[in-house]
Design a protein that fits this description.
The structure is a single chain. The chain is of the alpha/beta class. It has four domains: 17-111, Rossmann fold (3-Layer(aba) Sandwich); 124-199; 203-359, P-loop containing nucleotide triphosphate hydrolases (Rossmann fold), CATH 3.40.50; 362-428, Alpha-Beta Plaits (2-Layer Sandwich), CATH 3.30.70. The protein has 13 helices and 13 strands. It has helices spanning 33-45, 69-82, 95-105, 112-123, 127-141, 168-200, 217-225, 268-273, 279-282, 298-311, 347-360, 374-383, 407-418; strands spanning 17-26, 48-58, 86-89, 108-110, 206-211, 242-247, 253-258, 286-292, 319-324, 363-369, 384-391, 398-404, 424-428. A hairpin with a 6-residue loop joins strand 11 (384-391) and strand 12 (398-404). The longest helix has 33 residues, at 168-200. The protein binds guanosine-5'-triphosphate (GTP) and magnesium ion (MG). Magnesium ion binds at residues 217-218, 231, 237-238, 258.
C-alpha cells in the first residue's frame, strides 16, 4: 500500500497524524466506551492521535455509507472546520462504502481492518514480518483496487507498464497477484528453514503463550526464561515468534514460545499470512492463555482469544488461563493462577503447573540398551524424565525407566534416524517385553 494510503506516519515521526474517530453502536446498543478506548489505542499504536470523536447508534449499517448520509455530511463539515483529513471507523466497511465516504467527506477513510494492518506495518521489524504484512495488505487491497490505482505505486505500477488491451485496473490486479506469488515463495523458503529448527526441538514438551494483545505475553516469556523479547505498552508489539528453553526445578526442560497477540476481529488476511508464525500455538502441548487481570474487559477478551484459537485449529489443545498483572490494584483474581510477570509474584506456581502438565504427558517405559555411550545417556537424560538408570558393569548394557514426551515410537524413530548403530529393547512400564529393535 502506498504512503498516500498507509494510514499513519512512522511512530518515530515527531508529528502524529490527527484523526477523527467514528464509533457506531448497532442493534440498539449504546456506544461501547471500552471498545472506543481500544480504537483510540489502536490509532496511537499506528502512530496517530484521535482529536475528535463522533458516535452514532443505529439498528443496522446503511448500505451506502455504513452510517446515515446526514451523519456523513456532519463528518465532512467537522473535518473541514477542524482541518482533519483522516477518519477512522470502528467497524469494517465495504470497498463501496469507503469510496462513497471518501468522496463525500473529502477525507481518507480507514476501517478497523486497515487500521490493524497499518499497525502491523509500523511494528514489523524482521524481513519475514514485513513480507507477511505486505501479503496481508495486498490481500486486503485486491478487491478494493478499483478507484485506488494510485495506491499501488509501491508495487511498481507506473507509466509504460500496461500491456496491450489491459486497463490500468487489470494491470494493477496482475501486478498485485504477481507480487503475492513472489512473497509467498519467499515466505515458503523462510518457513521451511523454521520447520527444520522446529523439528530439532520436537522431542521437548512445548508451551505456547497466547492471549489478547498487550496482556503481557512477552514480559512473561522474559520472566520465565530470562529472555530479552521487546515488551511494550503498545498493541501488537510482537509480530514474530520467539522460543526459549525453560529449565525446570528438579531437572528437565520445556520450550516456551511467545508470539503475535490477538484482538477482536483479527483480520482474516492477517490470520492467513501469519499462519506459520502461529504454528507454535497450533503445535503446542500446552497453551497458557495469558489474560490481563486488570483489564475491565478481561472476560470478553478471554472469550475472543478462545474463539481465535479455534479459528487457527488450536481449540482442542490443553489450555490453562494465567491471570497476569496481579500486582495492579485494579486486578481481579478470576481463577487460581494469578501471576505478575513484572514482579515475579506467582511465577513459581506457574512453573509447578508446567512441570505437572509435562509429567502428565509422559509415556513411561523401560528401555534396555545394549551399548549405551555417554552421548546417548546425555540424550536420554535431557529428552526424558529418568526414574532409574542401572548399568550392568560386565556387559555395559543399561536399563532405564523413563518417561518420554512423545512416546516410544517417536524415540525409536529418532534413534533410527540419528543413532543407527544402537539397539533398544523397550518394555512397557509394567515390565511386559515388546519385541523389536531400532
Ligand atoms: N503492572 C504490570 N504490567 C505488566 C505485567 N506484565 C506485562 N506488563 C506490561 O504490559 C505491557 C504489555 O506487555 P507485553 O509483554 O509487551 O504484552 P504482550 O502480550 O506481549 O503484547 P503484544 O506483543 O503487543 O501482543 C507492558 O507495558 C508491560 O510492562 C505485569 O505483570 N504487571
Ligand atoms: Mg509481545
Amino acid at each position: 500500500m502506498s504512503n498516500s494510503r498507509t494510514l499513519f506516519r512512522s511512530i518515530t515521526d515527531e508529528v502524529l497524524e490527527q484523526v477523527m474517530l467514528v464509533s457506531v453502536a448497532l442493534n440498539g446498543s449504546e456506544i461501547d466506551t471500552s471498545r472506543e478506548a481500544e480504537m483510540i489505542r489502536l490509532v496511537e499504536s499506528a502512530g496517530g492521535v484521535v482529536v475528535h470523536r463522533i458516535g452514532q447508534r443505529r439498528n443496522r449499517p446503511d448500505g451506502g455509507y455504513f452510517i446515515g448520509k446526514g451523519k456523513a455530511e456532519e463528518i465532512a463539515a467537522m473535518a473541514e472546520s477542524m482541518d482533519l483529513t483522516t477518519v477512522v471507523f470502528d467497524h469494517n466497511l465495504s470497498p463501496g462504502q469507503v469510496n462513497r465516504l471518501e468522496e463525500l467527506t473529502k477525507c481518507k477513510v480507514i476501517d478497523r481492518t486497515e487500521l490493524i494492518l497499518a499497525i502491523f506495518a509500523v511494528q514489523a521489524r524482521t524481513p519475514q514480518a514485513k513480507l507477511r504484512i505486505e501479503l496481508a495488505q495486498i490481500g486486503y487491497m485486491l478487491p478494493r483496487l478499483s478507484g485506488m490505482w494510485h495506491h499501488l505505486d509501491r508495487l511498481g505500477a507506473g507509466i509504460g507498464t500496461r500491456g496491450p488491451g489491459e486497463t490500468q485496473l487489470e494491470v494493477d490486479r496482475r501486478r498485485a497477484r504477481t507480487r503475492m506469488v513472489s512473497i509467498e515463495k519467499k515466505l515458503a523458503a523462510i518457513d521451511s528453514g523454521a520447520k527444520v529448527r522446529h523439528s530439532r526441538r520436537e522431542e521437548m514438551f512445548s508451551v505456547a503463550l497466547a492471549g489478547y494483545t498487550n496482556a503481557g505475553k512477552s514480559t512473561l516469556l522474559n520472566r520465565l526464561c530470562q529472555a530479552d523479547v521487546r515488551s511494550e505498552d503498545r498493541l501488537f508489539a510482537t509480530l514474530d515468534t520467539t522460543s526459549r528453553r525453560l529449565e525446570l526445578p528438579g531437572g528437565g526442560s520445556v520450550i516456551v514460545s511467545d508470539t503475535v497477540g490477538f484482538i477482536e476481529k483479527l483480520p482474516k488476511s492477517l490470520l492467513s499470512s501469519f499462519r506459520s508464525t502461529l504454528d507454535v500455538v497450533r503445535e503446542a502441548d500446552l497453551i497458557l492463555l495469558v489474560a490481563d487481570a486488570a483489564d475491565s474487559d478481561r472476560l470478553s477478551r478471554v472469550a475472543i482469544v478462545v474463539d481465535t484459537l479455534g479459528k487457527i485449529d488450536a481449540g482442542s489443545i490443553d489450555r490453562v488461563t494465567v491471570w497476569n498483572k496481579c500486582d495492579l490494584p485494579e486486578s481481579s483474581g478470576n481463577g487460581t493462577l494469578s501471576v505478575s510477570a513484572l514482579t515475579g509474584e506467582g511465577i513459581d506456581g506457574l512453573v509447578d503447573l508446567i512441570r505437572t502438565k509435562r509429567r502428565e504427558a509422559l509415556a513411561w517405559c523401560t528401555l534396555k540398551i545394549n551399548i549405551c555411550t555417554g552421548d546417548l545417556e546425555y540424550w536420554i537424560r535431557t529428552n526424558s524424565i529418568v526414574d532409574s538408570f542401572v548399568r550392568n558393569e560386565n556387559t555395559g548394557a543399561v536399563e532405564v525407566v523413563c518417561g518420554l514426551y512423545r512416546g516410544l515410537n517417536h524415540l525409536k524413530k529418532r534413534l533410527a534416524r540419528e543413532r543407527p548403530g544402537w539397539s533398544v529393547v523397550p518394555m512397557s512400564a509394567q515390565g511386559q517385553v515388546e519385541r523389536g529393535t531400532s
